[in-house]
Amino acid sequence: MANDLLKGKKGIIFGALNENSIAWQVAERAHEEGAEFILTNAPIALRMGELNELAQKTNSDIVPADVTSIEDLENLFNKAEEKFGKIDFILHSIGMSINVRKKIHYTEANYEYYHKAMDISAISFHKVMKVAKQKDIMNEWGSILALSFIAAQLSIPGYNDMSDAKSLLESIARTFGYYYGVDKKVRINTISQSPTKTTAGGGIKGFNSLYDYADLNSPLGNAPALDCANYCIAMFSDLTKYVTMQNLFHDGGFSRTGVTDKMMHKLGFE
Ligand code: NAI
């Protein structure tokens, strides 16, 4: 289903780790739609080597960057400038919490880990855009996206400090979106995706139950990663030029549903 929606567009894709990653699916779809891009991930993630396969398939270069390091980001954007001149899109598809990994309860947070989660999962979005803006690398009407989750709005046990990170991420999109829009007509949004079976998703305590719950409690069921990628493509394309500063739910209607008949039935209330 390729429609040349991104023909001639250049970009940077953060966060493809393996073929389950949402960013991996975005890269494959962006390639099909005619985009050229640089793939980037943390040096430690690149050691696994799986990204080479995606780079070959999509004819892309890989540039390592720890997203919390301004120095790494400056190097990455310099490489992008050398290769493409200006760019049109950026995907930030990154999340990590050590409190989640170590199963430390939210109310007992380790603050060193907490800061790290905010830095990697949220403040890094600000850093990426700060470096992009300083370099003036984005074309007018360029589109920048990050991936979020409904735990930014609703309390979801087990999502831990990532809930706070996602709230911050969405606020950064809104606030940076104002300034980048006024100065350079660049648009910034977050896509709030259904639970998805990926490496980051699987780290959440009770993830499988959360996945099944969201699936049952949304009229359309959970949105698959490929459909999330399709939404990202639409947001990078010129068909969505005036959408900015939004948190866009891509969740089969979960965020607007009190309860479904399917759920009532499951609970035995009928
Ligand atoms: P994933 O584990 O495939 O991707 C997370 C990526 O973050 C990995 O590629 C990892 O290497 C990268 N990363 C971690 N620390 C980094 C650092 N310091 N510098 C650069 N990159 C770093 O998992 P997934 O699910 O594709 O995650 C992508 C985004 O989607 C995340 O923001 C996640 O929170 C979000 N999301 C995921 C959902 C899910 O259920 N899987 C639901 C809603 C949002």
TrEMBL record:
Respond yes or no to whether keyword Lipid metabolism is given for this record: yes
A Pfam family cross-referenced in the UniProt record is adh_short_C2
Instruction: Give the GO biological process terms.
Output: fatty acid biosynthetic process
The signal peptide here is none
Q: Which reaction does it catalyse?
A: a 2,3-saturated acyl-[ACP] + NAD(+) = a (2E)-enoyl-[ACP] + NADH + H(+)
InterPro entries per record: Enoyl-ACP_Rdtase_NADH, NAD(P)-bd_dom_sf, SDR_fam
Q: In which pathway does it act?
A: Lipid metabolism; fatty acid biosynthesis
Q: Which UniProt keywords apply?
A: Fatty acid biosynthesis, Fatty acid metabolism, Lipid biosynthesis, Lipid metabolism, NAD, Oxidoreductase
Domain of life of the organism in this record? Bacteria
NAD among the record's keywords? yes
Report residues binding NAD(+).
G15, S21, I22, D66, V67, I94, K166
Provide the E.C. number(s) assigned to this enzyme.
1.3.1.9
- Which EC class does it fall in? oxidoreductase
One MF term from GO for this chain? enoyl-[acyl-carrier-protein] reductase (NADH) activity
The record's family statement is: Belongs to the short-chain dehydrogenases/reductases (SDR) family. FabI subfamily.
Name of the protein in its database record: Enoyl-[acyl-carrier-protein] reductase [NADH]
Organism annotation: Vicingus serpentipes
